[in-house]
Design goal:
By secondary structure, the chain is of the alpha/beta class. It has helices at about 5-15, 30-35, 45-55, 95-100, 120-135, 150-155, 170-175, 180, 190-225, 225-235, 255-270, 275-300, 330-340, 350-355, 365-370, 385, 390-395, 410-415, and strands spanning about 20-25, 60-65, 75, 110-115, 135-140, 160-165, 185-190, 310-315, 340-345, 360-365, 375-380, 400-405, 420-425. It has a 6-stranded parallel β-sheet with strand order 10-9-8-11-12-13. Strands 3-4-5 form a 3-stranded parallel β-sheet. β4, α5 (about 120-135) and β5 form a beta-alpha-beta unit. α12 (about 275-300) crosses α13. The structure holds uridine-5'-diphosphate-glucuronic acid (UGA). Uridine-5'-diphosphate-glucuronic acid binds next to α9. Uridine-5'-diphosphate-glucuronic acid binds near residues 147 and 248.
Length: about 425
């Protein structure tokens, strides 16, 4: 397993759980040392148990040495493809870098399986080099796991997509994934380009659903309609479906935002940029939401954020994660701070990562310390402990009973009943 981040570490532990001997290779010696102690360097429910079991059994080891890949039958590429600095395109340096380091350790029996999200065309490029330099075969097997559900999504995926040049090149992966296939996961064999595109078009579709409902939320706000009731009603149409129709502060994380941008950049290179122009608007709707939430906070504070004490509940990009990459919550917290508010942040898991990215915010020791003396409470990530807050008890801790529900997860009437000024997004 080359690359041991959210994807690689989970995939490594899952493969060990399935009975394989796995070696994880990463260029970061600190990460490798942590993983070899059976510890996970990020928060992912269920992963520490799985990882520590298989590190203890000796079936799962980690190293910085690419030579350790030599005895492996299958080499999974799980490295990151972040957004390039100063461009919408994906930065493929980790993909090409790890592939180049792996090459000397391959032979004609090696199967390289790409899992990273890459621009269409990347796999064919790697396959040509692997064939010429080592006589090895490349397949593309995009990963669809969600953070927070990574273990479950890996052991029980809803589909397995494998892009290959020859249908027989999929045979070893069909064998490897037998437990998942027997559990009902469809095994779909495609060409390289289709497999690469399945991944980005799925993420682009999810991003589109979220921005769509956020755009409708704006119309609801202008008319006094209720976007939560609306989403429920349209979701009963199974052609639409109710998932990913939660209006709120918008999408973030290490995948959706950078993937739609890389998709647009690649379409431009291919001369079909016009076809994905709508994704620019999806991105705009999403980014505008961050500004409009800060504006709503100012509105609730009679127009000025200056000197206001604001409790920000949640900075992770979503609950059950400590990931703050492109997090709307953290972006909004920083924006409020830059506009002169005294921001007290609390998040159950993401405090360390947030403090590294934005050291100038105040990080409260616990939820009560964040709420203490607040003029305004902003719920920005729907962690269960925030969703379950008691409006009466919370009202005794803050200075003013004002709450902005950036995820539409609180019971508005209960909060209003306890004397709070309550606002959500696209709800009356
Ligand atoms: C996403 C995809 O869901 C995975 O299938 C994919 O494998 C992954 O990206 C990836 O490419 O690696 P993830 O980034 O873990 O997974 O997060 P999601 O659960 O998709 O949530 C993304 C963002 O959308 C979060 O900020 C979340 O709060 C937001 N969201 C989600 C909404 O605002 N409304 C919704 O209705 C749903």
């Amino acid at each position: 397993m080359i690359g041991t981040g959210y994807l690689g570490a989970t995939h490594a532990a899952a493969m060990a759980e399935m009975g394989h001997t796995v070696v994880g290779i990463d260029t970061d010696p600190n990460k490798v040392a942590t993983l070899n102690q059976g510890k996970v360097p990020f928060f992912e429910p269920g992963l520490p148990e799985l990882l520590s079991t298989h590190v203890a059994s000796g079936r799962l080891t980690f190293t910085t040495d690419f030579a350790a890949a030599a005895p492996a039958d299958i080499h999974f590429l799980c490295v990151g493809t972040p957004q390039q600095a100063g461009s919408d395109a994906a930065d493929l340096s980790q993909v090409f870098g790890s592939f180049t380091s792996l090459l000397p350790h391959l032979d004609s029996n090696s199967l390289i399986v790409g899992k990273s999200t890459v621009p269409v065309g990347t796999c064919a490029q790697l396959a040509d080099v692997a064939a010429t330099e080592a006589g090895a075969v490349v397949a593309w097997n995009p990963e669809f796991l969600r953070e927070g559900f990574a273990v479950e999504d890996t052991l029980r995926p809803d589909r397995i997509v494998v892009g290959v040049r020859q249908p027989k090149d999929a045979d070893r992966l069909r064998e490897l994934y037998q437990p998942q296939i027997q559990h009902g996961a469809p095994f779909l064999v495609t060409d390289y380009a289709t497999a690469e595109l399945v991944k980005v078009s799925a993420n682009a579709f999810l991003a589109t659903k979220i921005s769509y409902i956020n755009a409708i939320a704006d119309i609801c706000s202008a008319t006094g309609a209720d976007v939560v009731a609306l989403a429920e009603a349209i979701g009963h149409d199974d052609r639409i479906g109710s998932k990913f129709l939660r209006a709120g502060v918008g999408f973030g994380g290490g995948c959706l935002p950078k993937d739609i941008r890389a998709f647009m950049a690649r379409a431009d290179e291919l001369g079909v940029g016009r076809s994905l122009d709508f994704l620019r608007e999806i991105d705009e709707i999403n980014m505008r939401r961050r500004q409009s939430v800060a504006q709503s906070a100012a509105d609730m504070l009679a127009g000025s954020l200056l000197g206001a004490h604001i409790a920000v509940l949640g900075v992770a990009f979503k609950p059950d994660s400590d990931d703050i990459r492109d997090s709307p919550a953290l972006n909004i917290a920083a924006n409020l701070h830059l506009q002169g508010a005294a921001v007290q942040v609390f998040d159950p898991k993401a405090m360390g990562n947030a403090a590294k990215a934005f050291p100038t915010l105040n990080y409260a020791n616990d939820l009560n310390a964040a709420l203490d003396n607040a003029d305004l409470v902003m719920l920005l990530t729907e962690w269960p402990e925030f969703v379950g807050l008691d409006p009466v008890r919370t009202g005794t801790v803050v200075k003013h009973r004002r709450i902005f529900d950036g995820r539409n997860v609180l019971d508005a009437s209960a909060w209003r009943g306890a004397g709070w000024e309550y606002r959500g997004i696209g709800i009356p």
